[in-house]
Write a structure and sequence with these properties.
Blueprint (H helix, E strand, L loop, with lengths): L3 H9 L8 H13 L3 H14 L3 H17 L3 H24 L3 H17 L3 H20 L6 H14 L3 H13 L5 H17 L15 E7 L17 H14 L2 E6 L5 H11 L3 E6 L3 H8 L5 H13 L2 E4 L10 H21 L3 E7 L10 H11 L3 E5 L17 E12 L6 H20 L5 E7 L2 E6 L2 H17 L12 E16 L4 E5 L1 H9 L8 E4 H9 L5 E10 L6 E9 L3
Helix pairs in contact: 1-2, 2-3, 2-4, 3-4, 4-5, 5-6, 6-7, 6-8, 7-8, 8-9, 8-10, 11-12, 12-14, 15-20, 17-18
Length: 584
């Protein structure tokens, strides 16, 4: 279903001692689909030594092919693709020896493609012909196997054999089968592009064949409250907006939607998605009950009923668990950025694109937390933005100082020194002079983005304005610890840190004890609870940090899914991500 994170969670919830070889294989596949290729490789290599089944060989080969695609080092690329090719051939031959040739076509076509990557066109043609023959036999026998993959394999085989016109026909047939899901089409296109590129064709020559469903992010104005001075979205606009939303769906291949659920355009959008059977994910800043009070109930019982209906029909409702009683609109800014980034993470998993739709009056983004703010963000970063116009633009106004809230959207780091309690008194002086001084030197380079830093013995608390810069700082901190020779300065060589990251609203208030601005709130506590369960020497982050990083278009690090992990002090179970540099 294109939900590798859910698959990973389900497998991790089982007793590891009872997991079969097949389950371990699926666990590796789930990790690979989440982007955690090295962890997937480690799990599958261990299983390969014990039970090298053909299925396991094929899964491990796929991981090495992914490593080949993502690694920049030319020596490692050759090593990875060579290992991948060998494993695919091993898997195919084992399937054939076991008399289950109906499973081997997948391994033969991948053996052919990896032979192309190795510039072995002789082997590539031989293996592609084997895959083609097996697929034709399966089609002739009216096999109940997944017909879409058989047709897709024929498409890739024809590319390798030089006939792109026949490839086009097979890819079209693949998408016409009942077994073909949205998540499959993006994978087909990706494989076709690779094969085309390495066979000397235009990589995008067959793009028009693939009806890859997009992930749509939506934001729109609420229905006008009674007595609103400047009309924006009125009851008289509903039918027209409804119609234009329907036209947008008609004009775009939408497979998944992300939005909030306020009365007015949000609910109109969700109702249209439901009518079409499109998967919808709803993101709320706080509990549905509190959200109903703030953004639905004023419009009347009918909108309350419709609100309950779209929640009941949604594939998932995400409650960001912010404080509904807190002043200001930062919770809504947080929600918009979160749903935007979550949609991008989902699109990456499905190997597809995102698009944005807004019901908007054209106003400037001075009103925090609203549609204008997220549209401004999209305009700076996205080309695929569609707008349904309502009302007319409101001139920018200065926000009165009394309305400026103390709460703000921040990115925070908590880090703890592993083994600090075992330091002896003579080691404290070099710890301060070399370890803490090194952190101070590093933090000086980020002083324009860093709004707060504090330390108490073995712990560090840092607040940044930018999610991207905090991620970069965290990885530099990790690298500083790895690269230093601590024994040279009388400290244990095992000196290390756990580093945890989170992005969310927090209250920036004057701390009378410290005599400066400090940061407080539920989300600060959540960040602190991630740190104790982070492995030493690693950087872990919350799902919101990963989502906001995606929304910001960060490319200096990657966030790989770890799983749903119980946080320290019984704070709850949350999805966590492993933050890594692009070269790690």
């Amino acid at each position: 279903m294109g939900e590798p994170i859910v698959a990973f969670d389900l497998l991790m919830s089982q007793d590891k001692e009872q997991l079969s070889s097949k389950c371990w294989q699926l666990l590796g596949q789930a990790l690979a689909n989440c982007g955690s290729h090295l962890r997937a490789r480690d799990i599958l290599e261990k299983q390969y030594l014990n039970t090298p089944t053909p299925e396991l060989c094929a899964s491990l080969a796929r991981v090495y092919k992914d490593l080949w695609k993502t690694t920049r080092d030319s020596g490692k690329r050759l090593q990875f693709v060579t290992r991948s090719h060998g494993l695919y051939v091993e898997a195919a031959e084992k399937f054939d020896r076991a008399g289950i040739e109906h499973e081997s076509y997948y391994s033969w076509i991948n053996a052919a493609s990896t032979a192309v990557f190795l510039s072995r066109r002789d082997l590539a043609g031989e293996y592609a012909e084997k895959a083609r023959s097996l697929c034709m036999e399966l089609l002739a026998s009216r096999s109940s196997r997944s017909k879409h993959w058989i047709e897709a394999t024929l498409g890739e085989a024809m590319i390798i054999l030089g006939d792109t016109n026949r490839a086009r026909v097979h890819y079209e047939r693949a998408q016409e089968t009942h077994s073909c899901r949205n998540s499959h089409i993006g994978t087909m296109r990706k494989q076709a592009r690779l094969a085309l590129e390495h066979c000397g064709f235009d990589p995008e020559a067959l793009d028009a064949v693939f009806n890859v469903p997009k992930v749509c992010v939506f934001s729109g104005h609420m229905l006008d409250r009674e007595g609103r001075q400047t009309p924006r979205f009125q009851a008289a606009d509903i039918k027209r907006v409804q119609s234009e939303i329907s036209q947008f769906f008609d004009s775009n291949q939408i497979g998944i939607t992300y939005s909030s659920a306020a009365c007015g355009s949000d609910i109109l959008f969700l109702e249209e998605a439901n009518r079409r059977g499109v998967e919808s994910i709803i993101v709320l800043p706080f509990s549905p009950e509190n959200f109903r009070k703030s953004s639905v109930s004023f419009a009347g019982p009918d909108w309350e009923r419709r609100f309950e209906n779209v929640l009941a029909s949604a594939s998932k409702v995400i409650n960001l668990d912010d404080d509904a009683s807190a002043p200001g609109a930062i919770a809504f800014t947080y929600t918009n950025r979160y749903l935007d980034g979550a949609a991008m993470l989902r699109a990456r998993a499905l190997e597809t694109e995102t698009c944005c739709l807004a019901v908007w009056d054209g106003s400037d983004s001075w009103r925090k937390g609203g549609t204008s703010e997220i549209v401004s963000h999209w305009q700076q970063r996205r080309e695929d933005l569609s707008v349904i116009n309502v009302g007319r633009p409101v001139k920018q106004m200065a926000v009165p100082e009394c309305e400026t809230p103390a709460r703000t959207l921040v990115s925070v780091l908590f880090a703890d020194v592993v083994g600090f309690s075992k330091l002896k008194d003579p080691q404290i002086d070099p710890y301060v002079k070399h370890f803490l001084a090194g952190i101070r030197k590093l933090s000086n380079r980020y002083e324009d983005e860093m709004t707060f830093i504090n330390t108490w013995g073995d712990a560090i608390f840092v607040v940044f304005k930018s999610v991207e810069k905090l991620g970069e700082f965290a990885l530099e901190l990790r690298n500083f610890i790895y690269a230093s020779d601590w024994e040279e300065v009388m400290l244990p060589d095992s000196l290390n840190m756990r580093i945890a990251l989170h992005s969310a609203p927090a209250s920036a208030l004057f701390d009378p004890v410290l005599g400066r601005i400090n940061y407080f709130g539920h989300h600060i506590s959540q960040a602190a609870r991630i740190e104790p369960i982070t492995p030493p020497g690693e950087v872990y982050a919350s799902e919101s940090f990963a989502a906001l990083s995606a929304s910001a278009g960060v490319d200096s690090y990657v966030c790989e899914y770890v799983g749903r992990v119980p946080l320290a002090k019984k704070f709850g179970t949350f999805p966590l991500f492993h933050v890594k540099g692009v070269a790690d």
